[in-house]
Amino acid sequence: MPAIDLSLDRIRLLQAQLPPYTRPTCHIAGTNGKGSVSALLHSILRASGSSVPLTVGRFNSPHLVTIRDSIILNDAPVSPAAYNQARNHVENVDSSHGIGASNFELLTCTALYLFERARADVVVLEVGMGGRLDATNIVPDDCILASALTAVDLDHQAFLGTSISAIAREKASIARPGKPFVLGQQSHPEVEPVMREVVERIGGDVLIAPEVELRGWDESIDGPYPAATGEFVPPVPQPIEAHLSCFAEPLRALLPLHGAHQLANLSTALGVVSALLTHPSSTCLREHLHITPASIAQGIRNTTWTGRLSFRKVTLAPPSGLSCLVLADGAHNPASAHTLAAYLSPHLARTPAPAITFLLALSHSPPKRPHETLAPLLGLSIPRLAVALLPFSPPEKMPWVHPEPFAELRATVNELAPQAEVYEPDARAMPQAQLSEALTWAAQRQQREGGLIVVAGSLYLVGDFYRLLEGIQAAG
């Protein structure tokens, strides 16, 4: 029996004992891109208050560094004191009523409690897994401003179904009667008909996200073009153009999130923005909003989404003291691995005899196999390839999550890239120490051969990487 028991029964009982949730909410489902869409939408809303900035809440999962990262108010995670007070209250209510809510249900109720207490003007809520039976789907119909569906692909098949259609059905079931449902760009044609069937049965209104295209750099809008230096450097923001039916002129902005897939994610976010400006169900909110092309462009430009195609210049602690360039990306399933590979591929093509050092960990998540996720990355044309195989620290409040065994990872790497240099740190050490050891090895290799270090395969490993950086900065 799976360790995750998808049901709304427990959280309904728990939420009924807590203050009613009344915040206007945008609800985001999908396999890949949910977090990026929610980050973009959050930033746009923050830039779009009528006289003072809107109070905007955001809920994402899993967390990256600490569990508080899941709950954002305005521009930062909630404080430890606020989180602990709210979490303790929710846990006490759960215990006193004998409900036995899961950790994710407790976290979701904690987030809703904090957003309600802060009287957030708008909340952006990311689905945890699936949609129909996800804990976030407890939010009342009256609170939902718009729902959205990002790219659907195979993931979590043990819980959501083994086909794209089955997974799309689960995710589209966050639709609400009389409310807009924004369909983001999809790579599988079967998603749209399933989505339309589900949304129309529920009584929602389907909206197709607008097209977002790359455009040329315009110094009159974008400023001077940054000079390129070095073999691998963080790329400049992507200049984009989009046509929203609510504006007469095209929207032009700089998108700081890297990769072609972020155009699709921005498209979904702009679809939600368009729904907020045009759909009858959002009329009461519009007097508080001041969404203009300028505020949207500012919000897009201000967006950050840590751990997704994120470049970091790292100076390691003594005795090595080496500096290295690291790309951290939470690619953890075949679709997101293809996205990372597509991002790396043109950089490799421009570099003679390129070198890449992957620091990899994967979650053990059958029926998903390591081969499916690693094939896009290790199949790249990389003459000088090295791979470090790593575990990750047990995620806080997520006891069902475990890393893939080393033997399985090693066999997969040997099959896909027999020419690769493989590094395994001391397995007796704690995961954070193994990562530190592997990063030192990778930095030494980068110093000798150039190239790029890529931390990928699991958001939990990326979280370990950022915790390691915090430790280095605190010590230095």
UniProtKB/TrEMBL annotation:
Assigned keywords, A-Z: ATP-binding, Ligase, Magnesium, Metal-binding, Nucleotide-binding
Residue spans crossing the bilayer: none
Molecular-function annotations in GO: ATP binding; dihydrofolate synthase activity; metal ion binding; tetrahydrofolylpolyglutamate synthase activity
Domain of life: Eukaryota
Name of the featured protein: Dihydrofolate synthetase
UniProt xrefs under NCBIfam families: folC
Family: Belongs to the folylpolyglutamate synthase family.
Organism lineage string: Eukaryota, Fungi, Dikarya, Basidiomycota, Agaricomycotina
Signal peptide: none
Annotated Gene Ontology cellular component terms: cytosol; mitochondrion
PROSITE patterns: FOLYLPOLYGLU_SYNT_2
